[in-house]
Amino acid sequence: MSSISTHAGDHGQDGHGHAHEAPHIAARAKLDMDAVTPGSGMKTAGAGLMFMGIVGIVVVAVGGFSGGLVGKQALASYHMGFLYALGIALGALGLQMILQQFNAGWGAAVRRTAESTASMMWVVLLLFLPILILELFVTKGMLFKWMDPAYTAGDIIYTKKMAWLDPQFWAIRAAIYFFIWIALGSVLYRLSRKQDENGDRWITAKQRWISSFGLLLFALSTAFASFDWLMSLDYHWFSTMFGVYFFAGSVLSSLAVMIVVMCSLRASGKYGAAFTKEHQHDLGKLMFAFTVFWAYVTFCQYFLIWYSNIPEETAFYNLRKDGGYMPIFVALCLGHFLIPFVILLVRDVKRNPHLLRLVALWILVMHAADLVFMVRPIVKDAKPGVNLWLDIAGILGPALFFIGAAVWKMSRGPIIPIKDPRLHEVLGHKNYV
Amino acid sequence: MARKQSKIFKTPTGETVYGMMAEFATPADVYHAAEKFRDAGFKNWDLYAPFPIHGIDEAMGLKTSRVPLLTGLIGLGGAGVGFAFQYWVSVYGYATVVQGKPLGAWQAFVPVTFEIGVLFTAFTALISMLAFNTLPMWYHPLFKKSRFLRVSDDRFVICVESRDPNFDPAKTRQMFESAKGYNIDLVEE
Lengths: 433, 189
Hints:
The structure holds 2 protein chains of 2 kinds.
Chain A: H1 3-8, H2 23-26, H3 33-36, H4 40-65, H5 68-101, H6 108-119, H7 121-138, H8 149-152, H9 156-161, H10 167-198, H11 202-229, H12 242-267, H13 277-308, H14 311-322, H15 326-345, H16 347-351, H17 353-375, H18 388-410, H19 423-427
Helix pairs in contact in A: 4-5, 4-18, 5-6, 5-7, 5-11, 5-12, 5-17, 5-18, 6-10, 6-18, 7-10, 10-11, 11-12, 12-13, 12-17, 13-15, 15-17
Chain B: E1 17-24, H1 27-39, E2 45-48, H2 56-60, H3 67-93, H4 106-132, E3 156-161, H5 169-178, E4 182-188
Antiparallel strand pairs in B: 1-3, 1-4, 2-3
């Protein structure tokens, strides 16, 4: 807020040069250390969520070992859950780097949530290992059909893409992505925690510097990961918009998780002045922005394919149309965009913790539907709704496990960066519009 | 300006009083003065400053503007009109098959629907903002005060109108004085 200096800087020339502060600065709140120290309930909540996640994963695993169509579907269901967890972690990583890059004063309040979430990226790697091992050594192309030499025999499109769609290269790329994400996530988290102890302002400068090239690496790795793990499920098909599509959904789901976690913490009496409805309002605005961004990207992808009507491009939508996924398509148009768009336009919704949390939960449900729309149709034999318990357990398992791990991680230190140099801006933050 | 008035105040020279103004040296002074007038229940008064003062709407007790609601409703309505118009043209008014698509293909209407929504939103926001601010305004009694010109440079001014039920030349002057106001002056109509 550059206006601080403007307010105090009008003395001298008019003979009224006494020191004074603008009123809203004089009324600035103090940091309440008790309110930013996590309670024991947070650890319990994290552990509870992780336990529920494990139950879900076990259910999917039981389905997977039963083999046949259920086994095939279980792998796809689990893959959706893995992508759900990955999206939340990636969104948190990208958001905190964006906040650092823009030197966002208000954002210091919400950064610790994102830092804790992104630092648990290694849990996502753990969740990915079953898919990697199964697809490379056991099921060999049950999910990623291009991994199956018998399936791709004589396929000219595969031959053209062979250099990229090579199982070993695919695994190496996965290692590179996870290396980038885990390194960025844990380094940024550790620096932030170090600052909690020594209050060194240069740590903020260092975080900003890391975020600069970090964002570039993040953008490229996120896009290519979405090509590898989502777009290649249907390896004949391609869309240059896909990386952005995945990014938009990821950040949106991550914001929704942050809103649910932080509004719940605030409802339980945490944060004090460090996270008020002003900061919540800003999170709501970001969620609104990414709702629109997701819709824009999704529609652009669909619109161009619909307009040009080239068979190799329309295959993606035809597969979903013929597979009986049109209800989900309509639900996404309405529930992922139109309804949250209109609701989040209202200022009072963004400032009401209960309403905003409800909208965030709704968006999380719709994000699951989005993943179902992207992944599930590749299991052509199982129509939508068949073995619904498998899909529900497959998404909820890894997702809840990861969210629980993030909440648990957050409970291991102050829930905001207590010595961030921008903290005075956090405590005095106010939305004037 | 014809308006309902319970009492009509006159200056010593016999002119109708529009209100009373006072200058303030700092944003903090004018902020606290605004709080006093708000708490005293004044309704017809305004504050003039060279730049936006954060939180001043709260200090003045201003209610949330109706501009966002109006803008939202008319924007969404405009988008609906845009869609309906394209649909009518494509299906009934001038039915032409383009690129082998169905006549009422909604996909093709989305970009224009969006743009018309934006157009309606922007115009509603601008016009309703001007309307609620009673702009454009070609004349204002304060323009006659040469000291008022400094409000565009380094002065902060509050003017209480005489039509406010709480207005009383002596008491209002006292309030200004107690709130660090100076150069307190009656403003003629």
